[in-house]
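Batch job 17 of 40 flagged for manual review because the log was empty.
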Amino acid sequence: MKSLANPPLNVKNQTRTRFDLHHLEEKLMISPLKKLMFKYFEFRIFKRLLNSLNLNLYEKQILEGGCGAGYGIEVISEHFKPKRYYAFDLKKEMVARSLSLVKRKKLPVTVFQGDVTAIKLSSKKFDAVFIFTVLHHEKKWREALKEVNRVLKPNGLLLINEINNRSLNWFGRYLKVYHPKSARFTWGMFRKELNQAGFVILREYFFLQDFGFFIGCKQPIG
């Protein structure tokens, strides 16, 4: 179990001013329901998409952005046995939960407090980056996509799932759970921004048209 010594400065202020997480969503993120949903729904869809492409992330170098309570860390570590695994979250409380899980499970994972728009790691370092339902909270989500591209190796993979603006509008209207307007997107807009950030979309899958799963490949240089 490891943590980085020099997390980004002013992370607490960044959380208040830019990254919007409703308290009900925060409770869901640490709930047993979220753990089950991740293991038996979200992760299984990504595995199926990877299999359809004949791709395997076994013993690769993996980064997870927005690791939350660490449910992704546990499942990804079990299935892929990464050569190196780094995971970060903007919120200190979530980092503490992930670190506790890593220590309890004795997993060789480096966990740190970090910002998906300014990842404090080397360029061209990872074979794959996982991001699970993070960007609809992030006002600078376009910058985040470009930053993820930076830390990926050539032909590295971005595995990302998200919620589109129609669902977010519904959450606001009926559940009073609001998200930043600048972090809302249609699937057409999301595809366009993935392309502009330097990704070729290899596979996509939609659940009820509102919950989207994408595998993107970093475009080769030159």
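Reviewer: the log was empty due to a logging misconfiguration, but the result itself is present. The mean pLDDT is 89. Unflagging and moving on to job 18.
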